[in-house]
């Protein structure tokens, strides 16, 4: 059986650290905590779990801090988390099973990273990350901000998942780091162009964000998943700026990099729905439902665009076209995912009525205005 060193870098995490460590301590043999300057009770909390606590002077470089943490690990394998991550009980059981059965030739194990859930507990946003790696490989973290673990060799996709359960976030931290680097005259490579654009987007600086998304795409050197994501984010920026035609252009541009994704089909469908082009909108929402499934995707996935949202919008489209039977069928499919959704229930009541007594009413306008979640 392998042994596992859990490595975390922390700063002022007193409100979440114990929750994180309690969720995973049964599966790890060693806990390594690297503190980058806490002024709260973080280190005293950490001390109740481990004596492997180290200080690291913060130098605006996440990769440097993570590499330092990895250098202190002594087990055969290293698992990394952030302090606001947790293993839910079913995933802890999967991690324990993985620990007992992992083949010696496997160098790196990826796990789903669940970023958001809806009110029904259904995961709505997730991606995959390399989480557990063989220490002897000496894998290194790359990048001062939005760092990534550079791995190679034989990999395994685990069914265990890590859940992000943040209580707070320093929303300006990464943007400050990027802008300090720019002020020093640093020239950004493709990856930094993309993530700097993301920070600008998150801060509603949309005009600057689309400029950097464009610069990123023009390099022609981006990872394909980042290229696709940049198209979607630029499309959202233009929507926020009221430039709907440019929003459509960037949604369509995503098709340069791979098959249509549900998120982009929904964006295009919504563009046509806003213009009362119901048949065209329905085509794109059907395409969202029929798009290739990406269950092991490494990029961020908005799962609503492949499940309930297209069905809800198809209900609107078919109702507008006078096909109430198909509208009702799609609303019922949406209700399978969101049984208590107000728009779904409104449509159900309305359609059950008009299917018996045809009238001039139309399906919920709130449903028709359901834009793709960003």
**Percent helix range:** 40-55%
How many extended strands?
11
Largest sheet report: 9 strands, mixed
The CATH class of the largest domain: Alpha Beta
CATH topology of the largest domain: Spore Coat Polysaccharide Biosynthesis Protein SpsA, Chain A
Give the SSE order as H and E letters.
EHEHEHEEHEEEEEHHHHHHHEHHHH
State the fourth-level CATH superfamily of the largest domain.
Answer: Spore Coat Polysaccharide Biosynthesis Protein SpsA, Chain A
* Mean of pLDDT: 93
How much strand content do the residues show?
Answer: 15-25%
Q: Please tell me the total number of domains.
A: 3
Low-confidence parts: 366-374
Could you characterize what this model shows?
This is Glycosyltransferase. Pfam families: Glycos_transf_2 (PF00535). GO terms for molecular function: transferase activity. Keywords: Transferase. The structure is a single chain. It contains 15 helices and eleven strands. The chain is α/β, with parallel strands linked by helices and 374 residues long. Strands 1, 2, 3, 4, 5, 6, 7, 10 and 11 form a nine-stranded mixed β-sheet that branches. Helix 7 runs antiparallel to helix 8. The longest helix has 17 residues. The radius of gyration is 23 Å and the shape is globular.
């Amino acid at each position: 059986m392998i042994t596992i060193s859990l490595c975390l870098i922390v700063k002022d995490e007193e409100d979440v650290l114990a929750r994180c460590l309690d969720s995973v301590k049964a599966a790890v043999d060693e806990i390594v905590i690297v503190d980058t300057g806490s002024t709260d009770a973080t280190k005293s909390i950490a001390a109740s779990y481990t004596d492997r606590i180290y200080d690291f002077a913060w130098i605006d470089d996440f990769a440097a801090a993570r590499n330092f943490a990895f250098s202190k690990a002594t087990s055969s394998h290293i698992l990394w988390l952030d302090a606001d991550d947790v293993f839910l009980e079913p995933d802890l059981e999967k991690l324990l099973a993985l620990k007992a059965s992992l083949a010696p030739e496997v160098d790196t194990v990826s796990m789903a990273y669940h970023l958001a859930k809806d009110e029904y507990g259904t995961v709505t946003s997730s991606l995959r990350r390399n989480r557990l790696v063989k220490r002897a490989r000496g894998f290194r973290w790359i990048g001062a901000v939005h760092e990534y673990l550079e791995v190679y060799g034989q990999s395994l996709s685990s069914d265990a998942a890590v859940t992000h359960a943040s209580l707070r976030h320093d929303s300006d931290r990464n943007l400050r780091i990027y802008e300090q680097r720019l002020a020093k005259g640093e020239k950004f490579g493709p990856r930094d162009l993309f993530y700097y654009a993301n920070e600008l987007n998150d801060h509603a600086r949309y005009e600057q964000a689309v400029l950097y998304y464009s610069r990123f795409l023009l390099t022609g050197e981006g990872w394909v998943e980042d290229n696709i994501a940049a198209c979607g984010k630029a499309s959202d920026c233009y929507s926020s700026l009221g430039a709907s035609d440019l929003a459509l252009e960037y949604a369509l541009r995503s098709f340069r990099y791979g098959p249509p994704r549900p998120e982009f089909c929904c964006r295009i469908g919504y563009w046509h729905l806003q213009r009362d082009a119901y048949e065209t909108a329905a085509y794109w929402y059907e395409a969202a439902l029929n798009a290739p499934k990406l269950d092991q995707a490494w990029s961020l996935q908005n799962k609503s665009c492949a499940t309930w949202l297209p069905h809800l919008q198809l209900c609107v489209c078919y109702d507008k076209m006078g096909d109430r039977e198909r509208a009702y069928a799609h609303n019922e499919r949406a209700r399978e995912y969101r049984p208590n959704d107000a728009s779904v229930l409104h449509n159900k009541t309305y359609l059950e009525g008009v299917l018996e007594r045809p009238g001039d009413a139309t399906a919920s306008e709130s449903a028709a205005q359901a834009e793709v979640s960003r």
